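Attaching the record inline, Q. Sequence:
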Amino acid sequence: MAAAMITTAVEQTPTIDEPVYVATATDYLHEHRLRYNPEHPPLGKLLIAAGVAVADPRMDPPYPGTQQDVGRHLLYESGNDPWRLMLWARLPVIVLTLVFGLVVWAFAREVTGTAGGLAALGLYAFSPDVIAHGSLATLDVPAAGFVLTSAWLVWRARRRPVLFLPPAGGALGAAVATKMSALPAVPVVMLLAVVSVRAARPGTERWRKVLVGLAGAVVLAVVAGAVVWAAYLVVDPRLRFDPAEPVPSVHGLRARLTGLLPLPPAYRAGMGMQFALEDRPWQGYLFGHLYTGSRWYYLPAALLVKTPLGLLALGAAGAVAALAVRRLRPVAPYLLLPPAVLLATAMTGSRDFGTRYALFVPMFLAVTGACVPALRRRWAGPLAALVVLGVAVSSLRTFPYYLPYSNEAFGGPAATHRLLHDSNVDWGQDLGRLADRLRERYPGERVWLVYKGSGVPSYYGVHGDDPRQVPPDRVHGLLVVSDSAVAKARGRLAGLIDTSRAIDQVGDSITVYRR
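Structure, as predicted:
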């Protein structure tokens, strides 16, 4: 898994969100202020900052513009090497992703034994979505992994609540201090804390167990809140909040609920930005259909496409086993409730952009799948091993193009762009590979480019004009289009694509046409 992620990190150009996070992390290091990207709390970007500190990039603090402009300026206009800077920014996330693999193994091993632990680790280590996003300087894997860690530690608190509830609160706080989308996990993990404390005191009177359990849940919540405050205080001990862009005001019930949260003002302002983003009419793309708004079934459908068949099958079977087998039943709430609540909440969102909003699903599925080899049947262990092997083969076949992965039932990575878009397929990651392909196979040819991403094509040697800005009869040569732009093509671009011939694919995310 480490080899796959490092290879991917070395070869991929910046994805759409990465320059913003890297620039924010750099600003934390240089200016110690809360200025950019307030819609996400600081902890994940502080993690990225650990790698950025090694790269030691040059930054111009007075640079004006949006956070996207600052990210682009840092990478391409400040004298820094974007390849080196992005690799160092990604390495801390890679390390943390590997650590979460050990959490998966430990959680499954405690519940089901060594065979189950190894099965879970295999499912996790070969999960294409986890590899894809674990190799990027983004926040999705850290947030999901911290939620998983909190569930594991709360499970361990069934035996020693005093020892494990505080670190469980710390892990939960880390999730909430990384992405606000982890907030729905707070009441779930608090409920599990009550269950764990009650299980740890079997001989106590019922009312006393309830009181002690509630006390344990409060301790967990207090520790989680302290971690969120600490993340902001590390950036700026004076908690000065000077956003580079206007922060939308929140009204009505949202404002009242946000104001009740005992969290830093910058966190609450970030929640306002998230509400504003949710209110926008985004475009989505699912199974070949472009639409405005959101579909409640988008995430389950996208997960069905982008999760290996073996992981889906073993995870579903493990969930049934956890509910049906008496000795496994105690762990069922810890494995099933957090991902179910988080997924149900994410399904109400307005941004149908990818399975990265639900990376907790493959993580929890890996642990849940370990319940199958724990069944006391002769066939259970060999069958689980065979399924894990199938997941490994499916994952290795997509190497090193993990972002556009889809399972064999939906045609594999080459077909994903016909079903999904954005970070499911094409997040701007293949600009460097495109430059290599044009140089090796199409030297000297005229290029027309429609690129979706944060990279600067000319930096990598890709020089192309926008075909939408000239009459169609002038567009001759190579028409190079990011697959997300192909999915959303309408009007002139759609006409150009329809009258061109596809001749090449770059990383299963960019299509090259001949005109």
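Strands lie at 283-286, 289-292, 447-450, 478-482, 501-506, 510-514. Residues 82-112 form the longest helix (31 residues).

More tomorrow.
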